[in-house]
């Protein structure tokens, strides 16, 4: 192995996207929220940290929040390499967790349906975290953490400080009766210490190697916190 490969970026960050495309029984489309992928991606790539993509089912996941007035969204959406990567995401169940320095769960309402009960989410997250990696999530992305347990049987979020899409924000978008559960209430029931900010205000919480953000406004900040943790870690041999 080359001596020059001991840089922190020897191991990429795994971005996970939801494969779920409808909001419950409403028939309304959803999916992963584009800005919650592109904004942290821009931060990590600017720091030279590689990123790979996976989704629950693999292939091309459904996209939501396709706001191309957002300059970062527009830049990536017109980038052929990004679009090709998104069209061919790895199936999370086929991922080797040992390849990654961190796992990041993007939000979008679809996450509320397929993240929580995915055995692949639980396994890959636990293995990366217990190997010393970083676990990140933003907005509805922390739905991935609701049922993740560590090898000792405790919930990963138990006793941890975190942030996630608030119950008030869910009511504000009138989906509190549509989602299968209220995210922050459920995380709190798992023993998490939730730290809310005002609706639609950026809020990022770092607790050890757990990085979480409240809403789309928090996506860049979550990327920056993951970057800082990875750059502060000893070089990976």
Notes on the structure:
It is a single chain. The chain has 237 residues and is of the alpha/beta class. Helices cover 30% and strands 16% of the residues. It has eight helices and eleven strands. The strands form three sheets. It has a seven-stranded mixed sheet, with helices on both faces. The protein has a two-stranded parallel sheet with strand order 2-4. A two-stranded parallel sheet has the order 8-9. α1 runs parallel beside α8 (219-232). The longest helix is centred in the last third of the chain and has 14 residues, at 219-232. Mean pLDDT is 94; it is low at 1-9.
In a nutshell, what does this entry contain?
It is built from eight helices and eleven strands.
Q: Any key phrases for this structure?
A:
237 residues, alpha/beta, 7-stranded mixed beta sheet, two-stranded parallel ribbon, globular
Rg from alpha-carbon coordinates: 16 Å
Low-confidence sequence ranges: 1-9
Tell me the β content. Answer: 15-25%
Portion in helices: 25-40%
What is the H/E order? EEHEEHHEEHHEEHHEEEH
InterPro entries: Class_I_gatase-like (IPR029062), DJ-1/PfpI (IPR002818), Prot/Nucl_acid_deglycase (IPR050325)
Domain DJ-1/PfpI: 36-219
Pfam families: DJ-1_PfpI
Family: Belongs to the peptidase C56 family. HSP31-like subfamily.
How are the secondary structure elements laid out?
Blueprint: E1 13-17, E2 32-33, H1 35-46, E3 51-55, E4 63-64, H2 71-77, H3 80-87, E5 90-91, E6 102-105, H4 111-114, H5 119-130, E7 134-138, E8 161-162, H6 167-172, H7 183-189, E9 193-194, E10 204-207, E11 210-213, H8 219-232
Parallel strand pairs: 1-3, 1-6, 2-4, 3-5, 6-7, 7-11, 8-9
Antiparallel strand pairs: 10-11
Helix pairs in contact: 1-8
């Amino acid at each position: 192995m080359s001596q020059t490969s001991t840089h922190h970026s020897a191991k990429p960050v795994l971005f996970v996207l939801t494969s779920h495309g409808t909001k419950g029984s409403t028939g309304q489309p959803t999916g992963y929220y584009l800005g919650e992928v592109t904004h942290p991606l821009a931060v990590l790539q600017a720091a030279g940290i590689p990123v790979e993509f996976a989704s629950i089912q693999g292939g091309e996941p459904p996209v939501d929040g396709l706001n191309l007035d957002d300059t970062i969204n527009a830049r990536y959406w017109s980038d052929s390499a990004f679009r090709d990567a998104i069209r061919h995401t790895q199936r999370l169940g086929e991922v080797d967790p040992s390849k990654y320095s961190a796992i990041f769960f993007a939000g979008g309402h679809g996450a509320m349906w397929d993240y929580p009960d995915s055995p692949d989410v639980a396994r890959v997250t636990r293995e990366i975290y217990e190997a010393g990696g970083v676990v990140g999530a933003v907005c509805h992305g922390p739905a991935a953490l609701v049922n993740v347990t560590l090898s000792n049987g405790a919930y990963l979020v138990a006793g941890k400080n975190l942030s996630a899409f608030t119950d008030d924000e869910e009511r504000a978008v009138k989906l509190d009766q549509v989602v299968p559960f209220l995210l922050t209430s459920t995380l709190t029931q798992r023993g998490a210490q939730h730290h809310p900010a005002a609706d639609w205000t950026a809020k990022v919480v770092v607790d050890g190697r757990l990085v979480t953000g409240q809403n789309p406004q928090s996506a860049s900040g979550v990327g920056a916190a993951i970057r800082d943790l990875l750059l502060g870690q000893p070089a990976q041999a």
